[in-house]
C-alpha cells in the first residue's frame, strides 16, 4: 500500500505555483457517505435505536469518535464510543470490500494529476484499514502519500492532517490545493492555510470569503487548481 511517509518528497514542476493537491476521500473521491449512514442506521437498529435523517448532516465528514459520540448521546444507546467505533468500522470495511463507486470526475482528475506528476495526498478522517481498502478502487499509484484519521492525535476539523501532508510533500500550505466535500474538511483545509475548493456531497457548504464552491469534480481540473493558487479563479457559490 502507499506509504504515509514518502522517502523523497517530490516537488511540482518548476514555474508552477501549485506545489501539491490534497484530497479528501469519502464523499469527495468515492461515493461512500451514503455507505457510512447505512452502516450507522443498521448498527443502531441492532442496538434497538432508530436514527433520525436530520442527524445525517451532523455526523457527515467527521472523525469516528465525534460521530459515534453524537449518535450515542442522541439515542441514549448503552455502548461505549470505542466499542461502537469498532462495530462501525468492521461493518463498513465489509461493505466496501466489494468495491466502491467513484464520484463523477474523480478518476479523470487523479489521472491528470498523475500524468503531470503533481504531488498528491489522500487526507482522510477514516481509519487506515478503511483507506487501504478504498485505495484498491482509487489506485494507490495515484497518491504520493496518505494520511489516516487514526494516525493523528487531532484530525479534521483541526488543520493537523493537512499541515502534516503538506510538510511531508515538502510543500507550503498556501501553495497547496485542498478538495473537500464537507464543512468539517473545508474548515480543516482553510485552518491549515491551504486554498480550498468545496464540492458539497450530503450537506450544503455556506459561502465564505476566499472559499471556492463547485457542483461537481467534473468542474475541477489541473488548470482550475492552479488558478486557485494564482488567484485567477474567483470564489464560486
Which keywords apply here?
single chain; 237 residues; alpha/beta; 6-stranded parallel beta sheet; 9% strand; globular; disordered N terminus
Secondary structure layout:
Layout: E1 20-23, H1 33-46, H2 56-59, H3 64-75, H4 81-96, H5 106-115, E2 120-123, H6 128-138, E3 145-147, H7 160-168, E4 176-180, H8 183-191, E5 195-198, E6 212-213, H9 222-230
Parallel strand pairs: 1-2, 1-4, 2-3, 4-5, 5-6
Detailed description of the structure:
With 237 residues, this protein is an alpha/beta fold. The chain is 40% helix and 9% strand. The chain has nine helices and six strands, in the order βαααααβαβαβαββα. Helix 1 packs across helix 4 (81-96) and helix 4 (81-96) packs parallel to helix 6. It comes from Streptomyces telluris. This is HAD family phosphatase.
